[in-house]
Fold:
Amino acid sequence: MPEPDPQVVRAARGGDIGAFESLVRFYQAHVWRLCFHLLHDETLADDVTQEALVKAYRFLPTYRGESKFSTWLYSITRNCALDELRKAGRRHDLLTQLGRETVPSHRDHSVRIEVREAIAALPLELREAVVLIDMFGTSYSEAAAILGLPLGTVKSRVHRARLVLARWLLPASQGSAGEA
Amino acid sequence: MKPELDCRAASEDISSLLDGELDRARAPAVRTHVEACPKCAQQSRTLDEVRRAVRTQPVGEVPDVTAAVMRKVQGQRRQRGPLHGGVGGLLRVAGVAAAVAALLLASSSLIGTRRPPASARASEVTSGVRDAARMLDSYRARYEIVERGWHEAVPVRRFDAEVSFSAPESFRLTIRDNTSYPDPSRWPSNDVDLIVNARRSWIREPQVCPEASLPACWTGATEERTVVARRPFDGAAGLPSDLIVPLETLSTSDLFELLGREQMLGRSALHVALPHRQAVPLISALQQGGSWREFSPFDRVDLWLDSETLFPLRFDVRRGRSAAGQVLMSARATSFSQPQDFAPGTFRAPIAALQRSGGFEQDAKGSFDDARSPEFTAGLRPYRAGSTSAGGRILSYARGLTWLTMAVERSSQPPRGYPSTAEQVTLDGSGVAYYEPASADSRRRVDLYASRTHASLESNLPRAVLLRVASSLDLVGRPLPAGIERSGLRVTRLGATGLRGLAFAESPSHLPPGYRTTSSFLVENRRGHRTLSVYYRRAQAEYDGLGIRTTQSPSVRFLPPSFEDLRPVTVDGRSGRWSSERGEVEWMDKGVYRSVRAPSLGRKAAVQVARNLE
Structure:
């Protein structure tokens, strides 16, 4: 994951509003994408992105640099998104909605939609693991820190997420081998 | 060799092994098992394929929330300063931060497990081309091109091409035709020269002659044309800049797929695949003049980018969507460099007998302190400024291959022929504007109609950034009149409420990814016949100039007769027809005519949209 210049973070912590603005510019797309993958609603993602960044500003003085700045910011983002899900009672397990037929290999352009939809249909706990690790490129330990989970749990969740995705996305022969 | 681990124990570690996250002590045993056990090897391949599919998901457009966030932050700051957040929230986040620290310490035993170099992600390509395009000052490359299927009498043609660029808008493209034609005196040699600089552009090409009539119509003539008094970045959509860094092709697309890293021409390259309809700026860069074969929007383009510079090393256009389709055109770089200097005269554009004026008079000393200039220019630097023969002002900004122009003119009348596809957008503090994605002949564009002033911005910056530039103008855009009368027809722009008020109107419940409603128009004639058109377009680019359009009319009683070659289709049990020429499906639904036109999406997708109307 990209990390900002530590001097910028220090300046922002010290109250330099311009430095904070450059952090917002640097991270807003990542924060939005994380919100979107957790919430699956563009409008909510817009709102929660703003909320998370404003919160980050308020709590900047609590950031002591022990973790990567991105890890810290993503945990705030995730908390805001989870609050939103709780508020809206949106925490559905969408698994049952997916009585999906098998689809061709992802080399076909049409399948891109399938990948996106399949990720959206994963239960939240599997989705957030696979989004952080495969889309955001965090290490397992960074994901564990963001999710507030033991490392072993992250490891098994990302594995389970991929097994489910394989079943949905790959031709029957391959997908079922994944279940072995 | 008998595997030492059982499959169940190994299986749980396969993902970690693929991610380079498995404990060093355990990795060799799992690797050995996977190599020896066909079932686990298959599972490993499957998981890796899923992993790559997820990792190469491209990033769509993301809104720019900076202004909104900074406004809230400033508000808070005024109220209570940055350090005095709510206590509950502070404790909770402080708890997260502490937990983060604790977990990082706890996991320090994993430091020995080195991650492999992260595979490139689609999002990195997107941001990479944007950065590369901004930073590029100069470029020169040579290509070899092979084209198949241009004419039945000439199955293969071969060319050498050379492209030179010096930022911000000096280009030179030279194409030399090395083809062995059946009778060289009767066939045009497809030699093309294009030179563009800040003042002029010049092109030389063989005189146009339709392929179907060749060689009979060929007169042996070449044609030269010059544009003088050229406006900044005039016709920039047609310049071969995507040959240098495929900025437009890749930075605004959600349709490319990153297939991985490969060796190409002795260099490490990123392999990307995308449909031709998304690669138009790259492929058409070579087809500035002369005669070339045509491609279908669905043909597949494979592109290899130098992983260090993101210059295209090679691209192939294949017939159909498959990677196994016949190669119709292939271009390979034979050399590229970023020269400090170019030979004198490299960008000198000759003045041909056939000329046209761009009507631009450049200020001797560009004045950018104009009250109308945008406050935010996305880091682009003032470049050329001047006036048009109609009395307007044009300001331009550039950096590397990235550019922005703003034209301002006084106008007291609202425009009459404004494109119906433009999307009305609300700007942050600057009122209302009209946005259009890039098409084959213009880049993204925003128009503001303020009191007695019309400002239009055009740029190859992404939509969100361009809208931010528009928001920073000291102008307040006003909405265009909702209805206009034109040649006996009344045209009314409808919002969501207006659409809902039309009993016969249906909207698709589901659209292909990236498409959203951009504009709706109701056209009524004197006899009260009504026709509704709704446009659905992607945010950044519609190179066919359209996207998706639905047309619905309760006044049309039957499908109009047509001489086209139409194919029957069914839409929810009703019989309809598909015109491949127009890319349109049409049917009658309980006395209402409906059609979906989507020239770049094809029959299946258009029929799918039709079936989703409700």
Notes: Residues 50 and 76 of chain A are 12 Å apart (CA to CA). The radius of gyration of chain A is 18 Å.
